[in-house]
Write a structure and sequence with these properties.
164 residues; mainly alpha; 41% helix; globular; single chain; two-stranded antiparallel ribbon
Length: 164
């Protein structure tokens, strides 16, 4: 059984991990990337099938849940595939290439945190430690893995907001 929610494996595949790579294979090949995604999503809270709370309305968007009426609304998605596609397209935007590279390289948690934190994503959120749950892990405060974050189950993180 997979250790992480399905969206994490799907997002890494969307971003360009080698195919075919099973979820168990990803657990072995991308442990830092998977943990970083999980803690990042926990820092956002829980937006159904959009656990990183990316902004914009992609195919399959169902309900605006934050920043509605702005230029960067955050939507829930009807299914994992649509949410993964939205998150993947968003991350592949020019502002976030360092995040994608860091995830695909399975960099250290510290390097992945720095790639996220130094990007325009949620600049200044969570007292400058965004994503705070990943920051805590990097500083030695062990954080739990959530198997439901982003699936509509309750998020365990502190909440944040996505940048453009």
């Amino acid at each position: 059984m997979a250790k992480y929610p399905p969206w994490e494996y799907g997002l890494l595949r969307y971003l360009g991990t080698p195919e075919p790579l099973t979820d168990a294979g990803m657990d072995t090949a991308y442990p830092n990337a998977l943990l970083a995604l999980n803690l990042w999503a926990q820092s956002e809270g829980s937006v159904t099938n959009n656990p990183l709370a990316t902004s914009g309305m992609g195919a399959g968007a169902t309900k605006c849940v934050a920043q509605c009426g702005s230029s960067s609304p955050i939507y829930e998605y009807d299914n994992v595939a649509d949410g993964v596609a939205q998150m993947g397209r968003f991350l592949q935007g020019s502002y976030y290439t360092k995040i994608v590279s860091s995830l695909l390289a399975n960099d250290t948690l510290s390097a992945i945190f720095n790639a996220i934190n130094s990007s325009p994503w949620c600049k200044g959120c969570q007292s400058g430690q965004y994503p705070v749950d990943l920051s805590k892990q990097v500083s030695g405060q062990t954080q739990g893995i959530s198997g439901t974050v982003g699936t509509g189950g309750s998020g365990t993180g502190t909440g944040g907001s996505a940048g453009n």
